[in-house]
Amino acid sequence: MGEIKRVGLCTIALARDDTTGAKSPLLECPAMAERLRKALRDLRALARDHRSGAAEIAERAAALLERFCRRPARDSRTSQALARLAETTLTLHPAMAPLLNLANRLQLAAEQDDAALDRLRRQLVRLRRQRRAATRTIARRFAARLPRQAAVVTYSYSSTVLAALLAARSRLQRVIVSEARPGGEGRTLAERLARSGIEVRLVIDAALPGEIPAARLVVVGADAVLPAAYVNKMGTGLLQERARRERKPFFVLADTMKFLPAPLARFHRLEEQPAGMVWRGAPRRVRVVNRVFETIPLEPHVTLLSERGPMTPRRVRAWLARQPLARRWLTASRRRAP
């Protein structure tokens, strides 16, 4: 059998064609095969990152894929390599929409002509630039909505939320955040805010909803945005419900790269993370469940703030309807339709 590379739930066969079992054309070009192996190794490292936010992981994935594209060649094997990378990118963190959208970009390029590699490289450069600009725009929009001397509750770690709080530092009284176990991302956020001179109050996760009555508002990030809901760390829904009861503004900050089209939603999974993050070496008959993501409805009191401004579910659906999708996903969706 040929060499098998396994990344997440997806098996990548470099030496055999996945559908026919024939020898892969990639082996006829050792340089291309080696570049693909290196890209897959780098992607596999991203799959092990359970602490960084969706935007940061997607940024690193785009950077390594850009490196893969730096030596473009008019080669019929390019499409096969890009399709393999698309398959792998889908499985890295299936709860994170930016990676699913990045996989769509790869598959779109794979379905074009054999000069697609250079175009994809330019798209990835532009995508990374646009994402950074989107983060700055969201930060400015959030800071403009923040009252002075505000105590703000947040949860887990989001690079977009971090940028927004830093942009609003002159208006902040303090930020209240919890540990965000088992990964401890809240401590990472607290440390970065404190280094920038912002006062931080760190509490245990169970205590965070009780901090909302004394705060001016709550702000969180998102790993994915669906037409009428969003995905974030388990526990976000409790914060949103407490904010509703206390009549406190609730902000979700997410750039449009996190908006997930319906044909890609079938790849979106709220999978469990390693049990050892909660309890390493748990006794027999103790099953540790480390389910870290949940889907939360976009309720009327929630403001979804993107680089395009506040987004209602109707605006989200309109945005998604305009996004190009690879034929591969559309064909698969039609096959699954009743």
CATH fold naming of the largest domain: Rossmann fold
Q: So, the CATH homologous superfamily of the largest domain?
A: Translation initiation factor eif-2b, domain 2
- Basic shape: globular
* Arithmetic mean of pLDDT: 86
Measured between the Cα atoms of the first and last residue, the distance is 37 Å
Task: Indicate the proportion of strand residues.
Answer: 15-25%
- Biggest sheet strand order reads 5-4-3-6-9-11-12
Q: Report the helical percentage.
A: 40-55%
Instruction: Tell me about the largest β-sheet.
Output: 7 strands, mixed
Q: What's the CATH class label of the largest domain?
A: Alpha Beta
Structural class based on helices, strands and sheet pairing: alpha/beta
Any low-confidence stretches, pLDDT <50, length ≥5? 1-23
CATH architecture assignment of the largest domain: 3-Layer(aba) Sandwich
Number of strands: 12
Any idea how many domains? 2
Radius of gyration: 21 Å
Count of alpha/pi helices? 11
Helix and strand element order = EEHHHHHEHEHEEEEHEHEEEHH
Can you give a write-up of this model?
The chain is of the alpha/beta class. The chain folds into two domains: 129 residues, no CATH class; 154 residues, Translation initiation factor eif-2b, domain 2 (Rossmann fold). It contains eleven helices and twelve strands. Helix 7 links the parallel strand 4 and strand 5.
Topology:
Layout: E1 4-7, E2 10-13, H1 30-47, H2 54-68, H3 77-91, H4 97-110, H5 116-145, E3 150-154, H6 159-167, E4 172-178, H7 185-195, E5 200-203, E6 217-220, E7 224-226, E8 229-233, H8 236-245, E9 250-253, H9 262-265, E10 293-297, E11 302-306, E12 309-310, H10 313-321, H11 327-336
Parallel strand pairs: 3-4, 3-6, 4-5, 6-9, 9-11
Antiparallel strand pairs: 1-2, 7-8, 8-10, 11-12
Helix pairs in contact: 1-2, 1-3, 2-4, 2-5, 3-4, 4-5, 5-6
